[in-house]
Request: fold
Amino acid sequence: MKRRLCIFLAVMFIFAFTYPVMAEEQPSVGIKVVDLLLVRPMSLAVSSVSTGIYIGISPLVFVLGVGEPAARVMVEAPWRFTAGRYLGDFNHYKDNQPITVVSE
Reply:
């Protein structure tokens, strides 16, 4: 009897957390693998280079008065694309903002 109850509770627990996720359209496994093995490492490299360049030019951009917009484009946007979205989702960040929008 305890075994049946444990199995029943385990199945209910699994469905309780996966049902809302199953209602949304999920990326295919192939897209997730491509994202994990190709896109994320390249995005990590580009984000690192972009941040390094921004650090190098930051005194100049602050003197010119475009420091904050430059930081959003060169630092925030690449890092959000690298780590701020679900695996395989190229359209939205985790906070449901579209990829083309840099948050303010």
Notes: Residues 28-83 form one domain. The mean pLDDT is 83. Residues 29-64 form the longest helix (36 residues). The helical segments are 2-23, 29-64, 67-83.
